[in-house]
Amino acid sequence: MYDKQVRRRRAVLALLVVVSLILLTAYFGESAGSPLHSVQRGVVAVLSPVQEGASRALKPVRDLFGWFGDTARAKKERDQLRKQRDSLLQQVVGYKVALQDNAELRRDLALDQNSLQGYDTRTVRVIGRPANNLLLDRLQVDAGSGAGVRMGDPVVADGGLVGHISFVAPDSSFVTLITDPSSSVSVKVLNTAGDTGLLKPSVGDPLDLLVQLLPRRAAVSVDDIVVTAGFRTSRLESLYPPNVPVGRVTKADPEELASDQQVHVAPIADLRHLDFVQILVGASGASGARAQVGP
Amino acid sequence: MTGLESYQLPLRLAALGFLTVVIQIAAVSQVTVFGVSVDLTPLVVASAGLLAGSLPGAVFGFCVGLFADVALVQTLGVTSLLYIAIGYCAGRLRELRDPAHGLVPLAVGAAATAFATVGFSLMQFMLGVRAPVSWLLLRQLVVTILVGALLALPIYALVRRVVQGSLPDDPRRRRRRAYTTGGLSPLQRPSAGR
Fold first, then answer.
1. Tell me: the pLDDT tens digits for A235-282?
2. Taking CB atoms and an 8 Å limit, are A131 and B129 in contact across chains?
3. Which residues of B are less than 8 Å from A50 in CB distance?
4. Nearest-CA neighbor of B48 among B5, B98, B14?
């Protein structure tokens, strides 16, 4: 009797492990349109309304837990912002003059004044998020292919870049954040030279982003703004439109710049406390090949 | 055990697993404690294994892991493989040692969180996520394990409350069965009438 129980237990355990390994192997080798992905897409479509309802119902609980951290962070931010305000006031006058010059020059060259021209925005609600954001940093939102959302669409919030759409179901989709290890964004630092680099998250501290591949002697300083570069070649086009604010330089060590060609950046969008984000749909150049493909 | 009673434990565990994953995705993951997101699912799986045994623990872990993988559009089989081990090991601990100390769920919860976090990271590395291991990553792992350990006791109490009464060797069930299968209830005993 005891032997029978032991054998049964071991058989079930072996069966479960084998099924998991078969699923893992099959899923890993499949393309996005294959049966397992289709089943997953179907389940996500069914679950989306449930998750949306749960997300709305549990928002007060989230807010309650978030209140303590938010209060401490808000005080720290207030002090930082006061300092920034004082220094920015001095820069505003100079920028106003530069803006006038810029507008005149753009008019002369017939350039687009708005980098987001050709995009429609969809404001969507965040309804889910994986627990483990160390190696997979994603959000689930309540709009999918039915709302015109497509793979690769850029996502913004709080005036800053959030990420891009990496999975689309009929009624929901997943956003891979710029803090996900798989994310790379071509960016430009708004310093005097307009140095360009590649934005990647720092492993283990997702909110610390790194602008890599900068020139070794780049004149980058703390508080410089980083925006998307938005390159376009004959074959490839960046996922992101140009000049979308991404972050602010928090650490620019000349030694680190000389050795690793990188500076540290904090994202402008508050990526850990997003309730709503905006998806930029209907890019004018979307028919071309995208420079980055979501997982 | 009647037919209906034999389905009580699977039904309760199914409802518990479904609610855990939905609440985890919709609310808990969006709250950060000391800079990390809390993951309740390995704690619930470990608690279920500790209460129900190795076989129900492994099956529950497989189902919860698979559901989480599907709902989060992750590679199928990764989380279920990890949670099978968590549920099975927690159940074996109960079957072999039958630990009675009140802090056992805390240690099991910490071990489950550590196994889930480190295991998930290793699996992602093996599946091709290119990210160098850094001290920052290790620090986050340690904080995640500590937060998991802190939540282990209340989660264990909650899971025990949910499955209580449907466990095969639950004392309350034994007592109740004794009255209904020929045993004398306290009201029928001669001493109770005095």
1. 677 788 888 889 999 988 888 888 888 999 999 888 878 888 899 887
2. no
3. 22
4. B14
Q: B187 lies in a domain?
A: no
Q: What is the pLDDT of residues A141-195, one digit of tens each?
A: 989 988 889 988 999 988 889 999 999 988 899 999 998 888 889 999 988 888 8
* Cα nearest neighbour of B19 on chain A: A54
Encoding tokens for residue B81? 């493989």
> Do A167 and B58 count as a contact with CB atoms less than 8 A apart?
no
The CATH number that applies at residue B129 is: 1.10.1760.20
Angle made by CA atoms A103, A106, A107, in degrees to the nearest 5: 85
Q: How far is CA A82 from the centre of its chain?
A: 27
Measure the CA–CA gap between B65 and A210, rounded to whole angstroms. 33
How many folded domains does chain B comprise?
A: 1
Closest partner residue to A131 among B38, B81, B131, by Cβ?
Answer: B38
What is the rounded CA–CA span in Å between residue A248 and residue A87?
Answer: 15
Select the residue of A26, A126, A135 nearest B124 (Cβ to Cβ). Answer: A135
Torsion of CA A149, A53, A32, B122, to 10 degrees: 120
ipTM of model over 0.85: no
Range of the domain at B53: 7-167
Q: Considering only alpha carbons, which residue of chain A is nearest residue B122?
A: A135
Q: Do A9 and B54 touch (CB under 8 A)?
A: yes
CATH code for position A225: 2.40.10.340
Q: Name the closest residue on chain B to residue A140, using Cα atoms.
A: B72
Please report where in the chains the tokens 């997300």 appear, as a residue. Answer: A55
Whole-angstrom distance, CA of residue A282 vs CA of residue A280: 7
- Give contacts of B131 with chain A, Cβ < 8 Å: 135, 181, 203
Chain B residues with CB inside 8 Å of A184's CB? none
Pair A151, B48: CB distance under 8 Å: no
Q: Which helix (H) or strand (E) holds B175?
A: helix B171-180
Q: B5-17 as b/e, with b when 16 or more CB fall inside 10 Å?
A: eeebbeebbeebb
Alpha carbon separation from B111 to B22, B146, B159 (Å, rounded):
23, 10, 17
A57 part of a folded domain:
no
Q: Report how far residue B114's alpha carbon sits from residue A12's, in angstroms, rounded to the nearest whole number.
A: 25
Question: Which residues does chain B have within 8 Å of residue A126's beta carbon, measured at their own beta carbons?
Answer: 30
Spell out the SS3 assignment of B68-133.
HHHHCCCCCCHHHHHHHHHHHHHHHHHHHHCCCCCCHHHHHHHHHHHHHHHHHHHHHHHCCCCCCC
